[in-house]
Amino acid sequence: MNLVRDLPPIKPNLPQVTDPADLTVLTAPDCPAAIWSRQHSEALSVWLDRLPASQLPRWRETVVVEEVSDAVRDACAEAGTPEGAERDELITEI
């Protein structure tokens, strides 16, 4: 998996923000989504680049926000994502 540093706009009217305070754009009735561009640690980027795609978590489930970390942790375990600081950071980022 590669992390792209500078993403081109996905759709001209889909806002991209770097400051979480700017996510208020989501309150506009004509804004279906927004892209929050964030920086990850270099260690996480390197780890993700080296991780085989088969070990990346894959899941589709509707959960309440309080259950997201547990759902991602379960998906990582099912995919065989190696345990460690980078996996913990990935779970936190998601």
What would you say this structure looks like, in words?
The protein is mainly alpha-helical. The protein folds into two domains: 31 residues, no CATH class; 53 residues, no CATH class. Helices cover 32% and strands 4% of the residues. The protein has a two-stranded parallel sheet. Helix 1 packs across helix 3. The mean pLDDT is 87.
How do you describe this structure in short?
The chain has helices spanning 42-50, 68-79, 85-93; strands at residues 16-17, 35-36.
Please render the helix and strand layout as text.
Blueprint: E1 16-17, E2 35-36, H1 42-50, H2 68-79, H3 85-93
Parallel strand pairs: 1-2
Instruction: Give the strand line-up of the largest sheet.
Output: 1-2
β-strand number: 2
Please report the distance between the alpha carbons of the first and last residues.
15 Å
- So what's the overall shape? globular
Class of secondary structure makeup: mainly alpha
- Biggest sheet statistics: 2 strands, parallel
Total of domains: 2
Mean pLDDT across all amino acids: 87
What share of residues are in beta strands? under 5%
Order of helices and strands: EEHHH
Radius of gyration in whole Å, from Cα? 15 Å
Give the helix tally. Answer: 3
Helix content: 25-40%
Detail the poorly predicted runs.
none
Write out key terms for the chains shown.
94 residues, mainly alpha, globular, 2 domains, two-stranded parallel sheet
